[in-house]
Design a protein that fits this description.
- There is one protein chain.
- By secondary structure, the chain is an all-alpha fold.
- Helices cover about 55% and strands about 0% of the residues.
């Protein structure tokens, strides 16, 4: 994550009522220039790290950004061209300026072309920067609803991360070198640690959204994570990463409640943990079928109870945004995503139709859904006009649970449930007002604009 003093949010690169003269450049002019005009570069390039309208991650872009305007494209003091093109692409998408967003096809084509040959270049950071570009492109396509292309670039990011052995950064078990040169300092090592976990979040979270398996099983030998949990980026700058510590089975220890000195309480660590739990819940839910043999059913129930306990433990320690000192917009967005998908993991588990009606699971599922929707309606829209496109899935799931619960109340016609029904209808109605605001990066949410016609409070 980049230093707070240089982090910018790209919802509105120009104040209302102002327009850069360069916005009037025609499509041919944009298509024939290597980069946007200098004043637009200043608006589009100083983004939160990873170009993160979406996530926090490596800060190599901001560290190099001070040289953006003094060297030609491709100079080693600047980010690699593929990464710059991907950053510009996201900046254009989030500009809220039709004249700028109309240039997305130009920079998308450029980003794709540069990324496809990025590893064959001579830029000293070509591997990390190409990995960053792949992450940005994956999120871009997911935000556009182009899922197949998003999956392609997600797979490319996973492949680069694995071949670079980012999951073995500071491994106590395997010290063989990877494709990346040894980190020059703690900040660069922090960038590599962040990259490992950012790619894992991309892989695991979108596996759930797409109802597929992740590209990697992070419990298998070849992809076991021995890297430490990520710190906030300014913690690396302040020397808070133990220079001699080695790590082993980070995910295994977390999932099994094994206490370690590496507690992983940064915003990125919490998001990574939430993503892994969500994917595990989804995977277990897909194993369920009503005709499981007794031995398999017993194993399923044991796995269910263990994972449910892990999710409960994590939810209990998950830090809300209001408890973070001086959170940046990127940190707030990260925690909103982590909170939402952690509670959606509970929904995923307790929505399984195990042994018929289960009052305990239904209550827990509804409580988790209410929590997620409360997060949605509490989002400070003036600061967070865009959010990770993965959020369409947990918000959609939570709204579905509440709709089902309201429908169940109306079928039961129990007088004592009238107040609870009205509470849920009111909550969901508020959510339906907010959801379209995020459709720019969460296309799934745009389908929820007509649901409210079925939600007027019933007469009892």
């Amino acid at each position: 994550m980049q230093n707070k003093q240089t982090e910018m949010v790209l919802c509105e690169p120009y104040q209302p009522g102002t327009t850069s003269p360069h916005l009037r450049m025609d499509s041919a002019s944009w298509a024939t220039t290597e980069e946007p005009p200098t004043d637009l570069i200043q608006k589009l390039s100083l983004m939160p790290s990873w170009g993160t309208p979406l996530k926090s991650g490596s800060s190599s872009t901001p560290r190099a950004s001070v040289y953006l305007h003094y060297y030609v494209l491709g100079h080693h003091a600047r980010p690699a061209p593929a990464l710059l093109a991907s950053v510009y692409l996201w900046g254009l998408r989030l500009s809220n300026q039709p004249q700028m967003s109309s240039q997305e096809p130009v920079f998308l084509a450029r980003a794709l072309a540069l990324t496809s040959k990025g590893l064959s270049g001579i830029h000293p950071q070509r591997v990390m920067h190409n990995l960053q570009a792949e992450v940005l492109l994956a999120y871009y396509f997911f935000a556009c609803g182009r899922l197949l292309e998003g999956k392609y670039h997600s797979a490319a990011a996973v492949s680069l991360s694995l071949s670079s052995r980012l999951h073995l950064t500071r491994s106590a078990n395997n010290r063989a070198p990877g494709a990346l040169p040894k980190a020059r300092d703690a900040v660069e090592e922090g960038e590599q640690i962040h990259a490992c976990w950012i790619v894992m979040v991309l892989d695991t979270a979108w596996a759930v959204a797409l109802e597929e398996s992740p590209h990697l099983d992070y419990q298998q030998h070849m992809s076991v994570v021995d890297a430490p949990w990520p710190l906030e980026m300014d913690d690396y700058e302040k020397g808070r990463l133990n220079p001699t510590a080695l790590y082993s089975k980070t995910l295994h220890n977390f999932l099994n409640g094994v206490p370690t000195s590496d507690d992983g309480m940064s915003t990125i660590a919490m998001l990574a943990k939430a993503s892994v739990l969500w994917q595990r819940a989804d995977s277990l839910a897909r194993e369920w079928r009503p005709d499981l043999p007794r031995t398999e059913l017993n194993a399923f129930e044991e796995a269910f109870a263990s994972l449910d306990n892990s999710i409960d433990r994590f939810r209990a320690i998950l830090v809300p945004p209001i408890r973070i000192a001086d959170p940046t917009p990127a940190m707030t967005r990260t925690l909103i995503v982590a909170q939402s998908i952690a509670h959606t993991a509970t929904i995923q588990l307790h929505h399984i139709p195990r042994r018929g009606p289960n009052t305990g699971s239904r209550t827990k599922c509804t409580a988790a859904a209410s929590f997620v929707v409360n997060i949605l309606v509490s989002v400070p829209l003036q600061h967070l006009g865009f959010i990770n496109p993965i959020m369409g899935t947990p918000w959609f799931a939570a709204c579905q649970v509440i709709i089902e619960e309201v429908s169940a109340f109306r079928l039961q016609r129990v007088a004592g449930l009238v107040q609870e029904e009205r509470r849920l209808v009111k909550l969901l109605t508020r959510a339906l007002v907010v959801l379209p605001s995020f459709a720019q990066t969460c296309p799934l949410l745009s389908v929820y604009n007509a649901t409210s016609v079925h939600l007027s409070p019933s007469d009892h």
